[in-house]
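Exercise 7.
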Amino acid sequence: MSVGDGLPPLDLMTVSAAADSVIQRGTDRSWSQADPDWNAIRPELLTDADRSVVRFITYIEDHIPGYLNWALRSFPVDGSELEVAAVALHREYFRFFVSWAYDEERHARVLTRYQEVSQMADPRELRLELAAEGRKHFDLPYVEPLAAFAYTMLQEKATQLFYQQFRGVVREPLLRDLLLRLSRDEARHFAFYAHLVEEYLRRDPGAAAPHLKEVLRTFRMPLAGTLPRYRRWSEEIAEVAGYDHTQAYLALERLIEQYVNGRADSGLAELHGLLQAARSMP
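Solution. The predicted structure, written as tokens, is:
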């Protein structure tokens, strides 16, 4: 991915300030694996459906090495052939990626530990199972940075909403605590990517529209193409929580509404209509 292709890159100092803000919020609200009360667990309150969801989201969160490798490939900082301006911008993204990856790795670790403490899985076997999935190559089909950011924005929002809704049906107290912690982190990640998408929209809404349409047309949650029986499993856990991932589209719809109102830009108007239609699908 080259910042010289497609849309002009975002302003270096704007991205730097956004990264500073979200990284500082993460520091101010940081928590560790030791913070939850692990002695409070009551595994007898877990349903079979709860256990299935925990196994599923552990796979998702544990795939952060693949996701981080994709981000570093997409926004390289290593190579004397790269333009200095591009590397400077990529380094600002890198600062956020490192903070984001730390959060996601913590999510994976506490979910892994939860499976162990609740005796859902053997520790060694669980690690081998996660490694078997984690070694599968992860990639996304987006060349333009805006598309990559919009995809991740929707994915983070969808994850946040799922954790919130799943927490509403879970009775086991430790899992409820973990889900609250995870959803707050995901909300912070979403805010950063949403800020980047908004910067593109603010600069040139019409030019941004085709890239956002591409994301909406191709959006699938991570691991949809690699995790065995992903589609059926994801449908099962969505039913448990009463959740629909298209709820996340509302976040993008609200961003676009700020720029479509009062404008004759047919690209954005069409995209706004697509989002509304997607959210109303049965």
